[in-house]
Write a structure and sequence with these properties.
Layout (H helix, E strand, L loop, with lengths): L15 H18 L9 E2 L13 E8 L4 E6 L8 H12 L6 E6 L5 H13 L3 E4 L5
Parallel strand pairs: 1-5, 2-4, 4-5
Antiparallel strand pairs: 2-3
C-alpha cells in the first residue's frame, strides 16, 4: 500500500517580500543622501508671490553698472554705496542682537554669480540664513 501526499509542494518563489525590502532600502538611501552635505549654505528661495517664512533683518543689494562693469553694494536700501570689505562688518553689527539673523539679497539680473556667492559666503561664515529675493511674476 503506497501512501501518497494529497497536496503537492509547488517550487515557486514569491517576490512580494523582496520588492518590499528593496522599496524600504530605496527610501532609506534617499533620506540619508540628503544629509551628505550638512555644511551647505542655508539658502531660502521665496516663491514669486513673495511669501517668505523668515523676515529679513538686513538687506544687501548689489547693483551692476554695465558701461563701467562695476558693482556697488548697499545695506538696508541705503543710497550710499558700501565697499565690499566693509559689508561683513556692517552686517555683523546689524545682526548682533537678532535671535534669527536673516539676510535678504537683492541682485540685478546682470550681476555675475561670483559677486552673489561672495555675499553668500559672508552669511555662511557668520551662520546667517540668506534669502535670495525675486521679482513677482
Amino acid at each position: 500500500m503506497a501512501i501518497r501526499r494529497r497536496a503537492k509542494v509547488e517550487p515557486s518563489f514569491s517576490m512580494s517580500s523582496m520588492t518590499d525590502i528593496v522599496f524600504l532600502l530605496l527610501i532609506f538611501f534617499l533620506v540619508t543622501s540628503t544629509l551628505v552635505n550638512p555644511n551647505a549654505l542655508k539658502l531660502l528661495l521665496p516663491k514669486s508671490s513673495n511669501q517668505v517664512s523668515a523676515k529679513p533683518t538686513v538687506t544687501v543689494s548689489i547693483k551692476h553698472y554695465l558701461p563701467q562693469n562695476t558693482f556697488t553694494y548697499h545695506i538696508n536700501g541705503s543710497s550710499a554705496p558700501v565697499p565690499f570689505d566693509k559689508i561683513e562688518e556692517m552686517v555683523v553689527n546689524e545682526l548682533k542682537d537678532s535671535e534669527d539673523p536673516t539676510i535678504s539679497l537683492h541682485v540685478d539680473k546682470t550681476v555675475p554669480m561670483e559677486q552673489v556667492v561672495s555675499v553668500m559666503n559672508i552669511a555662511k561664515r557668520n551662520q546667517y540664513k540668506i534669502i535670495l529675493a525675486t521679482a513677482p511674476e
